[in-house]
Amino acid sequence: MTAHRLPGLLIWLMAGAHALAASPLVDLSRADTGLHGARVPANVLLNLSLSHAAAGAAYEGDYVATHVYAGYFDARMCYSYPYRSSGGVNLPDWRVSTAYFSASKVADARHGCGGDSFSGNFLNWAGASLLDIVRYALTGGDRVIDEVRKTVLQRAYLPDGHNGVDFYAHPDYFPRKLLRAGVREATPFLVEQLSIISCRNRLLFGDGAQPPGGSCEDPGKAGALGVFLARVQVCDGTDGPVRAELCMAYGKHYKPVGALQREGQRVRVGVFGHASGVAAYGGVLWAPLAYAGAQRWSAPDFLPQDNLDAEWNLATGVYAGSKGVIAAINAPGRSDEASQGAYAAAAPQAELLYESLRYLQGRQASTVAGSASWSDPRQASCQRQVVLTLGDAGAAPDRYVPGHVPAPDSGERARGADAYATPPFDVTAWTRAVGALESDGAQGNPQPLPALAALDRLNYGQHGASYYAAGLAYWSHRQALRAGGLPVEHYAGNLSAMASRPDVPALPTPLLLAAKYGGFADENGDGNPFRASTGDAYLEWSVDGRWPGHYLPGNDPPALIALLRAAVRQAGRATVAASIAGPSLMALASGAEQAYWFRSQINLADGVMRVARDAFQLGADGGVLAGKAVWRLDGEAVPKPAVHTLDAQGALMPLAWDRLDTQQRSAFDPDGDGQGPARLAYLLGDRAHEVGQPGGFLRRRAAGLAAAPHGNLVYVGTPGLGLPGLDYLQHRQRAQQRRKMLYLATGDGLLRGVDAGSGSEQFAYLPQALLAKAALAGGTAVDAGSLLDGAAASAEVLVAGRWKTVLAAGMGAAAQGVFALDISDPARFAEEGALWEFTDRDDAMMGNIRAPPGFARLNMGGKQGKPVYRDMLVVASGYNNTQDDGKDRSPTSPAAAIFLLALDKPRGTPWLLGSNYFRLKLPLRDDEGASNAHALAPPALVVGNDGALAYLYAADLQGNIWRIDMATGPPWKDDVGRKLVFVARDAQGRRQSVTQQLKVAYAPGGGYLLLFGTGKLVEAADTWPAALLPQSFYAVHDDLNEQAPTRGRDDLAARTVGVAAGADSLAIDGGEVRHTGAGARHGWYLDFVATEKTGERSVHGAVLAAGRVAFNTVLPGRDACARPATRLYVLDVLSGFAADAVGTVRAGEQTGKLLDGLARAPPQLLELGRQLGAAGATGRAEGRKQFAVVQPGMPGVAAVKAASGALPAKRLGWREVANWRELHEAAKK
């Protein structure tokens, strides 16, 4: 039951049985929940510096039938156009209501139409303008007819000479095009060569053998074959269902949409431009920053509200009015009926950029710009500001910017520095700084251009434009525009049909440098894009080593579409910090194992994860001191690792085109466009088909691995010594010879196996359940998200009589299920690696699994008193298992469950309940109605003396703590062996969610102590003020008495928290806890303080060591711009008190160290050493362990030192063995 992404932060199921319909689902689509500023949507300001050049032809050169030309027409379709009779002659229709092209049939493989209609691919080449490409990407196109059942898009209106240049057959802006061959395949015309001229809103077809001539009003022979309106019907019943990159369903109908509609709930958008037809300073605010979609988020709490100013109807997709962002983007060139085709007479880009930055500063326009009144657009101090500038580089002089000192006799006006900023902003200084970095190789630039040294004095283009746009972008990217705010992130692109002319300067354009210096990821804070911490001179600013990552290339329409979409999408997904800590794993040297520290950094904006192995040391304070990098994994491995998946019979096979069956091939080529092999190659790491490459059409990827924010890292080295038997020892000896491996999930759907020593990728596995989504993840219109972001685990298990090393992982949010692999010998993975997958297709009660599965040995009963054991995977049903997603994939009644999945299931055999898997159902208990989502946390496994699973403990989002007795063996009936041990409630009686695995310790007097914290931080709603409820950490004693009542907090001893002024730790106090005898309590609890302000909660599982429990809490904060924090606690398991530096536990000691940043994983314990006291008369001594509790991924010293209580050491007991010598000698034989 894969969760679909629908509008809103909670997805409600509205069909089926009443109980099921009332159960809300958990939104798993976001990875930024709780991060700094994540609640505040970004401001995206579009600077459209549109002169007439923006309406120039999108495509140059001859038509190539096999090349795909993007535009309003579907390249895969053929189109017809209506004719009307006039004077006995059939002419193309010009009536507004009916004059448009419409899809009539599917084109052939070469985009041909057989001579009876027009090729959509050809029409895009012939008539598309650059402005159409921008509108296609951002709004879905300019709608000239916008009805519920009909949408017609119109090509940008071209200048006709009444307001400047005439585009009719203009050699620079929109030249006369010739189709020299294949006319009958691309059109219904019979000429040998076809002439195509674009003017106004028209397409003129004539015989290409005739000389050019005429005008738009009187084309003569140039229009002899017809004058057509450049309009096309899109997203109708034929087009809509198959054109997913453009069309979105609204009920039974479809509408063309762009990035603004798709991302409208995550960003605010505004538009700056120039006054139409007027040569003037600066720019005009065409549309103030606002929410365009159905919802809006208002300060200070940023809760979702209905947007009364939504720019389209949520039910139909029809535009709601003629004002707003979409209208501002679509209107240029046709906003004034009296002067259609009029664009800005001058487009001074640097001046426009400066005025837009003043707007973001909350100031009014410069006096020279006019008297318009602007409202402050900033809603919160942590609101990210993104500026996207498009225009014709060099279109106009643009030097009237603060700090400009005119050259002698230039006739330009001087302008003093802008004192609003500190220090005052001087555009010449900042532009000169860009020039220094560009021209001087000594600063790390691998390709310096000495000609750019005096950049502040250089002109670009024939109109004398400056490079001040680059200086403005660099200044606003390096420092905040105003106190307490954030720097600006810039994107920029050139829109000019003249960009590829040989007489255009070869130097980089001002907008290219603006994208480079206003958009680089300054992760080390040095202000230099060429000096990254890794030493890679391209890492911070370029994806491919050629172009800035934030540059939008106007001369490559498919890339422009893809990168405009990506810019808006990334604005909605980025974090205040450029990157966040991803999964991490560390250990000190032990036995045959070397010390290791594997860590990762994630950039949520571009969905990239970089993994490294670093050397490290532990400081005296327990903090981790990073050393040199051992290796770094960037996803650019050569040769590429072999990727495998399952075939229809469940056998492992290489993921290769010639090995895919028909159904699998159709997943890569769903529309029959013949690009299936290219999509497969993309998934396998080939970048040849990414946008920006010749013929590229797939999403461009940044260097690195696809991020899996909720995944983990699994190290598999030499198996431990804890299991008995000669066959296990032999297995261990074999395993000592294999590669030591690191396993990690990546967002492209692959589970990757990496040599832990060298960092080289050995193989990868794509779960069959994710193949269809992974096949289409390269699309540019819709964000596929992280496809494999579940955590993994490994164990040594006995499978069909043989010891194996097995790895299992949940599939995360993209699919509901788990998979298991045999990783006993990485070198033989291709032959032995597949075990199975288990999804909601096998059992409808399976949900989305993010936590690592568990492994357990089950007592299956047996005959004549001899038990039979079976090793199984143990996994909870997870999130959203009540999702209604199709026949046979939805439960008939809501319930949570724990699954026991046999690891010895023969390959290719079906899953059979009660045979090779078992389902342990748990009832849903929620006395607060159906307002809460239901989900089961990963179960804790408790083994008995025989090593088999004795008990399962599981918690859920309603705070229920269940025990399931497993010792009796199958069939484990649903109504037998379930015990509700405890219900977590706060002091007001409200249930407290538990999302973590319980930890289990032995309790005095028998039974177990269950240790866990409460709280949930999964979806955006978890950070809203209403969700900042009291949360706690519990130690609950389960005495295994079936007759005992369900316990609550009143049965436990309270621990109180004291907050000292100025201290970053907390004092833990309270009375003595007795676990047995008179006055015994059933455990203890600790309530976190001031949760209504801090939102403190426990969402990651605890760690047990030497009588201590270590856990962290996260504090996202009530204020939307609060800096999130983490506390690190170390408490005594039995008493709930903290210990002093030498390990003495007592009331009043401090713990709960406050750390900057949000922990994304449990803490890790590293043993620092042991202290041993003197032995007594019996040889017994006491010792203490010293260990560091480390919180990976946090800045500074994110660790605390801790000491255990007194532990027995040396001689632990004394027993006389009378025949010791005899036994000793016998052992030698």
From TrEMBL:
InterPro entries named in the record: B-propeller_PilY1 (IPR008707)
Domain PilY1 beta-propeller: residue ranges: 786-1041
Species the sequence originates in: Janthinobacterium psychrotolerans
Coiled-coil region(s): none
UniProt xrefs under Pfam families: T4P_PilY1
Keyword line: Calcium, Metal-binding, Signal
Residues spanning the signal sequence: 1-21
Gene Ontology molecular function: any one: metal ion binding
Protein's name in the database: Type IV pilus assembly protein PilY1
